[in-house]
Amino acid sequence: MAEVVLSSISKSFGDTSAIDDVTMTIPDGAFVVLLGPTGAGKTTLLRLVSGLETQDSGDIRIAGQSIAALTPAQRNVAMVFQQYSLYPHMTVRQNLEFPLKSPLLRTPQAVIDQKVKAIAEVLQIAHKLDNRATALSGGEMQRVSIGRALVRNPEIYLMDEPLSSLDAKLRADLRVELKNIQARSGATFLYVTHDQIEAMTMATHVGVLKEGRLVQFGSPREIYEAPVSIYAATRLGQPRINVLPADIFPGAPAGAHSIGLRPEHIRHGEGQEAKVIRVEQLGDQTRLHLTIGEYPIITVTDAHTALKGDGIIKILPHQPLYFDAAGMRLV
Ligand SMILES: Nc1ncnc2c1ncn2[C@@H]1O[C@H](COP(=O)(O)OP(=O)(O)OP(=O)(O)O)[C@@H](O)[C@H]1O
């Protein structure tokens, strides 16, 4: 159980500023997803909390205590990397037992056996417990890495795209399991992903990073519905928010340079004429690729639409977001 408070954290590598004055309070038991393009500083932030890197300035507190003087081993955190990190000469069982075998913990073997079995079942690798780590597929190795973090009961889990190497079905299963584990253990999660569904479904909070700075921190709903900028708006939502010149539709407020329209925030049947370029049937819904003049727009409609490519449809903004010339939202 731990609140994590980052106060004015900065970290540079030579001339590269990886983290730039980040202040963030992660409530106890929160599931925080960090979003941002490659190089935004997500991994560096996790490594600073884990103690694998040391900040140049600022302070990190876990449960009210500054952790500056603590080694990675002394911080009660478990980290899962994007790339699995297993002991190759050991079996899956030995890899999973390893964190529990620390002499400091003195965990009885019966408890270790029971924990390893439970985690192996959650991760769907129980049938591989006696295989050597090297005799596993990449996805299986990644599940063992996740398992090694989960068998311990750390206060904080730091996970860097832990599910990205897994197939879609397993990813969906483990998404649910990680959320269950979080709910049961009350642990705090700091989690990096590029997966929109993971971000929307798992996060209690989202931190949007841009070039090392935290540009928005809030619930996924807040970031989705009230982004501070075009940059924050484009981090969440699949298909992405449509960003168009504000004057394409009547009614833009003074100072508006762009209008942002989520695909589902476009009313059909009235308003401006748009050309239908492509109709994509997705089963539960249909995605429409439109253009107004040179501007592409993606919207969604019901699964059984009669619309075809080359048709014309009228569209009207519904819940538009407006942004100024610098890309900041007008409120
Ligand atoms: N050990 C290092 N030495 C030098 N530069 C580094 C080091 N680690 C990170 N950087 C730089 O710091 C910046 C932030 O990197 P970081 O890995 O935190 O980004 P990221 O958001 O995790 O990206 P990705 O999504 O690609 O993992 C980048 O410009 C990166 O090149």
TrEMBL record:
SUPFAM superfamilies: MOP-like, P-loop containing nucleoside triphosphate hydrolases. Keywords: ATP-binding, Cell inner membrane, Cell membrane, Membrane, Nucleotide-binding, Transport. It is found in: Cell inner membrane. It is a peripheral membrane protein. Gene3D superfamilies: P-loop containing nucleotide triphosphate hydrolases. Belongs to the ABC transporter superfamily. This is ABC transporter ATP-binding protein. The lineage of its organism: Bacteria, Pseudomonadati, Pseudomonadota, Alphaproteobacteria, Hyphomicrobiales.
